Amino acid sequence: METTLSPSALPPPRPGRVKWIWLNASLGAAVLALLAWSWKGTGINLVALSESGPQLLEFLDRMLPPDLTWSETEARPFLPPLRLAGEAIAITLQISFLGTALGAAVALLLGFVAAENLTPHWVHHSVKMALAIVRSIPVIVLALLFVGALGLGAFPGVLAIAIHSVGMLGKLFAEECENLDHGVWEAMDSAGANWFQKVRFAIWPQVAPEILSLILFRVDMNIRDSAVLGFVGVAGLGLWIENYRRAFDYQSVATMVLATMLVVLLIEQVGIHIRRHLK
After folding, report:
1. For the purposes of burial, counting CB atoms within 10 Å of the CB of 2, is it exposed (0-12), middle (13-18) or buried (19 or more)?
2. Number of neighbours of residue 198 by Cβ within 10 angstroms
3. Shortest CA distance to 167 belongs to which of 121, 120, 225?
4. Is residue 10 classed as helix, strand or coil in its secondary structure?
């Protein structure tokens, strides 16, 4: 015969369970409050969005079909986009690759120094603060700074991409080091190895695949950032997108946008292939 326990007869919730429920409920309420505040502050208007279809179609109609001509005409303010796309793609890739390489080299050193399990508190805390400051500066502001100092071209873009990559990759590299198994480190420490030997033989073999994966991901991001930097005078695809836009040549804009998408998709597939072999 089954017996049914009354609610008063049930054991009280464990203190840890009550704390877990309270913590999750508080977190959920905070997230909902933040979303409501953001919704109101940004002026989300679903009615206006539903009525914006004609304007969006009109803008897209100006861009279609993309200009795929090769010959020049007197009415055209610039060369045809296909004549410029190859050079613009090459410059964009050069900015991205060189900027990422320079940023990753500096971030690798700073990442080891910023890891709290590898350096004293005053060292890693100071480096993390410096990385946060660098990371807080938008890449387009860095590009404006270097364009003003060095003039137009690709070089300001390389510097902007490199510095911004240092801030982001340095933080991620440090976190990878902090999440490691410390057994090998402690074994080498007990054997009398110095700091550089421990980093080289205990840390690097464990973090190398993840660090290389993060660098590939950053290359992907930097290609898109390099295109955006064209709006402030950095050479590449973005510069020609802005030039054609100012000339109201939206079909040429569409051609350059398609070229940017093609490059990003190609680099993404190459990155996926490389990351698959790193695992």
Report:
1. exposed
2. 19
3. 225
4. coil
pTM of the model: 0.77
State the Cα–Cα distance between residues 150 and 138, nearest whole angstrom: 18
**Tokens in use for 146?**
């270097």
Residue whose tokens read 């790193």: 278
- The CATH number assigned to the domain with range 80-278 reads 1.10.3720.10
Phi and psi angles of residue 234, each rounded to the nearest 5 degrees, phi first: -80, 135
Token pair recorded at residue 106: 């500096």
Average pLDDT over residues 134-149: 88
Q: Give the DSSP letter of residue 14.
A: P
**pLDDT beyond 50 at 1:** no
pLDDT at 116: 82
Question: What pLDDT is recorded for position 245?
Answer: 84
Both tokens of 211, joined, read 């660090």
Q: What average pLDDT does the structure give for the chain?
A: 81
- Closest by Cα among 186, 222, 9, 190 to 97: 222
What sections of 115-228 are H helices per DSSP? 121-136, 139-150, 155-178, 183-190, 195-198, 204-228
At 163-220, the pLDDT tens digits run: 999 989 998 888 888 787 666 666 776 776 777 777 777 788 888 888 888 888 888 8
Rounded CA gap, 277 and 262, in Å? 23
